[in-house]
Structures
1.
Amino acid sequence: MIAFDRSVITDRGRELMNLGTVLNFTRIGTGDGDYSAYENIAARTALKSAKVSYTPSSATTDENGSDVNALIANYDPVTEQAVVTSTFTLKEVGLFVTVNGTEELFALSVSYAGERMPAFNGANRSEMVCTWHISISGNAEVAVTAAGAAALAADLAAVAANLSAHEAKTVGSEAGAHGLRYYDDKLEYDDDGTWTEIETGGGGGSTITVNAVTAAIKGNDVTISDGTDSVTATMPNTGVLVFENVMMTGNLVITCDMVSIIAETTLEVPYYGSYSVDLAVGETFTLLIDTAESTLRGKTVTISGTDYVKTGTMPASGALNIKTTYEGELTITATDGTSTATKKVTTVVGTSSYSVTLAFTTGIYGASWDGTSTTAWTRTDDAEEYTDPVPYVAGATNYGSPFDDKLPWSGMVKSTRNGNVVVAIPKFWYKITQEGAGMTIKISDHAETGYSVSPAHMDRGDGSGERDVVYVGRYHCDSSYKSTTGVKPVANITRSAARTSIHNTNSKIWQMDLATRFMLWLLYIVEFADWNSQAKIGYGCGNNSGTENMGYTDSMPYHTGTTQASRTTYGLGTQYRNIEGLWDNVYDWCDGCYYNSNGLNIILNPSSFSDSSGGTSVGTPSSGWPAAFSVKNVSGTYIMFIPSATGGSESTYSCDYWNFVASNPCLYVGGDYSQGGNHGLFYVNYNTATHAGANVGCRLLELP
């Protein structure tokens, strides 16, 4: 029976008593919060670490005060179902009162050492009747909400009677009592009609004998754990280790960790008794568990499988290594008390280590292209069952995307910053894998082992580190090099002139670069699972003669689509995730890259953007209609793909033209007012450093 060290009416409880209102006691809360002897527990308004709640059973009031009664148990005596499903140490009990619809902590009892409240397994009943005596006027009104109580007043009387009956009835007969009997010098329990002997160990717990099958176990510590409690002792040179009075039941894990290898086994202990188990070194799997969630540091990490539970504590570094011999699917979980991070991993013989990242968000969305002439990709991971997005088309009332509530897409919203209408793009992580002629792209909304930060958000070497968000101009730049609506885009400028003019407007604003364009490629591919942006969103381009005013999508009720009457109608009208004209009106100069005899060169730091120097080559793209792509992972750049073969068309492979000439360094992308199927999100072309054309404009990028 638990011994409470301190019991008080809280400060708020005394205030309520003085109000003279009806005290309606509605709940008993239990928890495992720790308290010190010097703590002002009367100031508490809630339990520290709430676990299980109970409903009060009755209240009586006389001239000496009021008594509130409740049964605290690990099972429901009416339904015989478990109330406590996870073992905890009972250290705090709170009496809650509801006044005018608001629940308040009225009284609190705490125990420094606590009492183990075991999870109910069908046989190990744990129960106690609690009574709070409250010294208030006998005229004060006290009520109890008893609906749903595990034990009502009559039940409490029955419990008390049963407790007395446990003393009055004897198990020392052939019939026994309450499923137990001591008969013929044996303690037995009723196992579905068959009396089965219980082997008892001294002191009330189990005796567990561990036999070291592998000699290396000798001299090392052996631990028995039920996932909550544990006991540890050193295996003697005899190879036989006896644990006495083990106060744990259920599926126990016995482990000997010898740094590089472990010996591990499980033992089912349905009740206290004598058990013996062999322990041997087996196939050792190492789980490399990391997290970027600061609130998980110092918290328990639980690894569970079928009849298997093992725990560890996440260190301050955010990296925890746990060894196991469990083969099969494991669930890895950690909680900070508010949010829970969960990950699954399957161990198989032959693979010794597994990297696992724990995060509160778990979205990974993928698309895979088989490398054939099809434009379609296959959805993978969390996007596997997603339907295709339905962009807007003029007059439509039904449109939407399964990605509308998924980051980073859901964060691509419009705003006005520094006089520019821009679209925010939250940081994400990505992974590209070459698979023969094809490839798979995955986007994660959280840091994940093996993934890279988005090219636009990565550390660019400019002293700002990784960025949580970047902003892209919603429109092409106007003649003031601003992103605004209602005017024509600026054109007839060289790439370097556009670079300088845009940056002159603000120290954090630059000309959009290939890293940002490539980021948009990733987002579009995973969302639409198809290369053909014109077919999926709209043909776009323009009037076939000259530039027109921007803002033609301002009235569009959805963030993606075309204002034209059909997707196959050319003309201004397209936007993707609020970014207008990615292949309309004018091409956009694309900075942060240049062509030369070494191929495509990448520059990350915007202050180093150049038409001819300072870049790192990622290889030479094939020039023409792409028919194959090669994934490039070059130090000092970002993981990307470039065309490695030609032979496609406007309706096969990637659909958009990609041109390369070593002597023309400046890239531009998208589409202009000329109508053509070679245009689209993936269109890449080139020109000289002195070129300034009526169909080439620019777009800004803000790097906060």
2.
Amino acid sequence: MAHNLIQNILDRLEGVRPLSQNQWQALCPAHDDHTPSLSVALTSDGKILLHCHAGCDHRKIVAQLGLVVGDLFTAPDSKPTNQKPSIRAIYNYRDLDGQACYQVLRYSDKTFRFRRPDSQGGWIWNLQDTSKILYRLPELMAAGKEQTIFISEGEKDVDNLSQLGLTATCNPCGAGKWSALENDCMLYGRRVVILPDNDQAGRDHAADVACCLSGLCQEVRILELPGLLPKQDVSDWIEQQPNKTPKEIAQTLHTMAQAAPVWTPEFQFAGKSQPEPPAPALPIDWPQPQPIPDQMPAVMKFDTALLPDSLRPWIEDVADRMQCPVDFPAVTAILALSSIVGRKLAIRPKRQDNWTVIPNLWGMLVGRPSIMKSPPMKEILKPLKRLSAQAYTKYQEELKEYVCQSKIDAIQEKAVSAEMAKAIRNGQSSESYKQQLAELSKSQPPIRRRYIVNDVTVEALGVILSQNPYGLLQERDELIGFLKSLERKGQDGARAFYLEAWNGNGHFETDRIGRGNVCINGGLCLSLIGTIQPGPLESYIHQAVCGGGGDDGFIQRFQLAVWPDDPEDWQIVDRTPDRAARELAWGLYESLDQMSPDSCGGQCDPFDENGVPFLRFDESAQELFYDWMLANENRLRSGTEHPALESHFAKYRSMVPSLALLIHLAQEGQNSVGQEAIEKALGWERYLASHARRISGRGV
């Protein structure tokens, strides 16, 4: 009976994804949920537990499902069944060489489990630090560049499409998890067709995949299959073609795919869910409720003149075509610059002092779900993803060369060892052979240059950063899930890791049996950007400013946090992107990626243990910075600001010189940072301070 009850609840939810045999994750029906935040569990005594990580009351969740709280419990005389579900399918995820990385197991009760091989022929029943890769990767890479790649939501669909002779793939773990992939860059330059499941979770997943692949792929289309009932998928559609051969079904799919629209940020699904019926009218003797007055502090509108000249036309073009606040692409562009420069070049804001600032920044885009936060962020990060794809291709070539050279090294070592053994048996000296062994070249494995990561554990991130000393960018589409994850029991070390990584000079060292020793001494540098909705942010801010678990200055480290006003009028803008503006901006990121500190006049300090080259202000810029710093420090000491704002504004000490350095480099500046760069940085400071007051004020 307990299993019947849990199935009844799961059938009423959207976006259901199994986590284990008796645990699931789904979209919460009690709030506007786009990233599954509802946990569902079946206990051993037949109880059903519901918990929304966004804070929704369980009674409200139950009511939205059309149930009562009593429906979460089985009758006293009912007993959970002891029958174990059986395995119905095993899906193997393999790397480029065809080696098994992990398996996804589908059970008879429609749950899924994950396992990966251990070193002793057994299985480890979790994925943990395992890199998430595309399904059927060897077949995908073997397909010709001219072939269309179909992307479905699950492995069963991919296998059914492959049986038709089509090339198909998907991500592991179901809908909403595409961004966790480590190798979607393998789709670079491909023509892709996404086949969404016929439900809201499927459409949201398709839109997320399209957004991630746009710009990376040659073409991205979304094909909504005709004749599907709610919650059906491409496998159901294939079964609806009983009188066609596999070749005919594949041809039909190709024909429909060619007619499907190319995805743009303005794409609208034809099969959108119908709106919910209106709430029943209030009793006639009750007065009509009035809206609560909105006392949000006013914020400054972003002035694109604060942007470097090489970025401004591109940012304006993206904001206009997407009809989103220009604040979102502007902040993202600066964060991308920050991650590219990282520890490559620093700034010393004082004329003589050795105080050094690494231009590492964190950003946050705040707005309602419909205001277009994620699309502009993903659009602006495409240059980094292109650099990542190019670096991955280079890494694969170097890896093949390393494997060949390693075999040659082994043969040479074996030959010298055999000669040495022969000499020892004959009573001869082995010294010359020792010298030969010492002189043999030992090939070092190549290191993959990384630019951007998404959903990653701290341990894995530590390894990646140890191999990328300049730093990189972490992108999180929904920051609230990330922030809440750092508050869970046992995550103190992860939270401390991010606090250390903020200023670009942090220290990190771990010792694990599997990974060995990972040490980053004074070079922990991680930029961070993500989106968040006002509601979840307000509760988190309240906790941070009122002495809760978040009261450690973590949220105040998001110096580039913006919450712009909603656009007044939305217009249809349908035109080709400004190619010249895009090429100019993308070229800037590639140029800074190749930049050497010497070419910019970077100075070195022999007494600096971190050894990061640096620039200083010129005389006019130095005076402007001193004037601002004097006023800012006195304001912080006056006691007139709320402690939360004091903590945030204190981070501007490093933010202002960081922005000045980034703007200076973006405008091809050399040697000293000049007046124009510091003036723009101070304009950013005034603009960001107004947004900080709005954001902080909602949680006080």
3.
Amino acid sequence: MPGMTFACFRFAAALGLAAAIFATGAAGPALAGAPLSAPFPVPRSKAELPPPPPPTRALLDRARLTGVTGWLVVDIDTGAVVDAYRPGQRFVPASVAKLPTAAYALDRLGPDHRFVTRLAARGSFSGGTLQGDLVLAGGGDPEFDSDALAALIDRVARIGLTRVTGRLLADPGPWPEIPSIEPNQPADASYNPGVAGLSLNFNRVRVEWPGRGAAPVVVAHAARSRPPTAAIRVEPVAPAAAPLVAADDTQGERWLLDARSLRRPGARWLPVRQPGAYVADVARGLMENRGIAPRAVAVAPGSGVGARSLGEHRSRPLSGILARMLYHSTNVSAELVGLAAAAAEPQGAFARALAPASGVQVTARAGGTRLADNVRGVLPLSAQSLNAWAARRAGFAAGDPGFALTNHSGLSVASRLSPERTVDLLRALAGPRRAGDDPLLPGGVAQLLRTYGVDLPEGTERLDRVRIAAKTGTMTFVRGLAGYVHTPGERRLAFAVFSNDLARRDGTRRGARTWMARARTLERALLAAWIQMADAPPPKRRASGMLPAGSTADTPAKARAAAAIPAGHGAAPAAGRSVVPIRGRGAGSAASAGPRWTVVGPRMPGSTGSLAAPGTGLLDPGTATTD
């Protein structure tokens, strides 16, 4: 056949050309040393392949959150890391700082500690008359309010006090008054009041005006009583640049209110900068209503030392105060319990600075300056004691920059926490439970935290075993969340996640609301992912004596035994391993001794299968080749 003849001729010609080239040694560079057969491609072993990124990285990408985010999730019982991303990064924690503050106060003061506010006499008391001064001595009670003050005055009136010849003195407690927690906050921010051991109504007042041009009134607002106060004055002024402006006044606290605001009814909360004078003024008004009229009022630090108690108000137990503080994120409460805890630690920097002098504990020196003359040093100094305590409790080095709080509430951009150090402390705080505690959470501060819910995939079992208890932190372009998780699979986790965009915070601050919504959405998605990651079955490890994937054996039985695969099964579903027959190539290969069997590992994520020479790596499970 002509076609066949021509094809044979071309084949013969090609063979002759190849033989000629081979015989003369005139091979070109492209043909030099060409192999007679193609080798098997050698895939990388499983250990050499980069691990797939955790799914939480995709959640972060989808969140489109500017700035920096970092987190750490650890199994409380084993210390195993469930997930981590920038765990050593230092973040502004905002109110997440209240969590270690609460734990510090529990440890130093005890859950049953009560703060005591006293009315005491300096002078003789007989026949209903106090010949001398009456002292209202603060004990650091964060929840002391107008209702409690009225009840305390009634208690003293019932023992027969009808007249005071001297003054009513307000003793603000063992540390100096601080005019605000953070000086860089807006002046009218009611969440940033003054701090003193004698406080009232969280050191804020309510300004109200009925409208139609009527003058505003200032009241010491509590749940049941609203006594007026003259310690904070609000004066209408001609139209101003801002509706409400703080005015400099050496005689007290004064605010200027745009008169146009008085046309309609309105109200505002305002911070109190001088708590001692405020409490003394409210107390005088309540006493006058009961026929007890002191000659004058004054703030007198240390005046309560040595004075004879006539009556006292005891706060509820500290654990209840802390639970409310954590739930409402009350800044002044956090500062007061933190100061009390630091003062109760004898070897702490703050307690050493409060060295008593003639019974008045305000003459200590901090950095060469008396605390009474350097009130801005009070909170940072007490926070040093908190930081040192956290280092001892969690076992990291004192002065670690990953745990550097500058106050107790977190209302500061100077404080820093890293996820790593925060979780270190959370693990250390996971103590035994008390009677009545939530059985799904550790004991201690975890029992005081607010609980949260997250959306888990449909069909998740044992949802009743899920518990999330955490503390949030929120400022403009600052967000944090830290706490504890109990999973359906009975794992106990400690976690911390922070997001900061300090560049935008220092800028125009546009888009802050959208940024915060994205940060919160990311937190919820991360929590759901961490629960699933923690409860996912761990990858099974090769038992002792098992051959690695790609190893060969003479018989299927030996290969199955080496791969821990039962006889009669082509694959072990849990491990994803199987055995397949392989024939070798070329002289001297395994083919000369008959088929050999190769142990096959699991398919790598995203792979389409690969062919491996015996003993060199992975094969796609279930793929048999005969070459």
